[in-house]
Amino acid sequence: MMDTMLSTLRAGLPELGVTIPEGADETLCRFGCELIEQNKVMNLTAITEPEAVAKLHLLDCLTVLKCADLAGKTLIDVGCGAGFPGVPIAIACPDTQVTLLDSLGKRMNWLEEILPQLGVSARCITARAEDAVAEHREKFDFATSRAVARLNILLELTAPYVKVGGAVLALKGAAAEEELKEAKNAISRLGLKLEKVLSFPIDGASHAVIVLRKVSPTPSQYPRRYAKIKQNPL
To answer: Torsion over CA of 131, 134, 138 and 139, rounded to 10 degrees?
Structure first.
C-alpha cells in the first residue's frame, strides 16, 4: 500500500511542478495509509485505493502550493473533513501555521490523535464554520476548502476568516468556471476580488484552485446561519 502510494505521489509531483521538503513524501503517504486504515471503522473517504489516494487526495491538495506563497503564513481549512487540504499543506509546507476546522467531533478527534504521531503540527477546532468565526474573524492570511459546497455558499463560510490582503483558496473540479459566474454577487458582497484560476489535470480530470483576494473587510452580518446561506445564497 505504502509503496504504491509513494511511487504514484513521486511520479505526480514533477507534473504539478511542486517541490516538497525531503521526507515529506513519506509522511504524506503515511497519512494516506492511516486514512485508509481508519476508514475501515469510520466514514472518512470514498477513495480507498492507494493510487487514487495519492492522486485525488494528496496531489490534488498540493496544487494549493502552486497558487500562493504559504511560507510563514497562517491558513485555516474550513470544513476539513478527513484533513484535506489542510494536512497535506501542513506536511508539505511545515512553516505554515495550519488550523483545521470541522464540526464533526469524531473526525477531529482522529486528526488530533494521528497528526502528532506523524510529527505534523496543526491546530484542530471542532465547531461549525459560522460559529467559530466569532473568535477568529479576519485572523488568517489564507482560508482554503475542498468539497464542502458550491462557491457562492462556500465563500460566505470562508471569507470572514481572511485578513484584508489575504486570500480564499477554493479547490474545485470541472465546474469551477460555472461556479465562479454563479458567485459573482457573493464575491463583491464579501469583500473579495477574483485574482486567478489555476487548472491542473490530475488523473484525466480537471482540478482547479480559485484564488480570491480579500480587498475589504467582510460585512459583520456574514456569515449567516448555514440553513439561511443554503436556502438563499448570495
So the answer is: -90
Cell of 177: 468556471
Phi, psi of 189 (to 5 degrees): -65, -30
Q: Looking at 115-129, 143-157, 198-212, which range is the least confident one?
A: 198-212
Alpha-carbon distance 94 to 108, whole Å? 20
Average pLDDT over every residue of 19-37: 95
Instruction: Give the per-residue SS3 of 144-203.
Output: EEECCCCHHHHHHHHHHHEEEEEEEEEEECCCHHHHHHHCHHHHHHCCEEEEEEEEEEEC
Q: Which SS3 state, helix, strand or coil, does residue 4 take?
A: helix
Enumerate residues 6+ apart whose C-beta is below 8 A from 15. none
Give pTM, 2 decimals.
Answer: 0.96
Give the pLDDT confidence of 109-135 residue by residue, as tens digits: 999 999 999 999 999 999 999 999 999
Nine cell digits for residue 192: 473579495
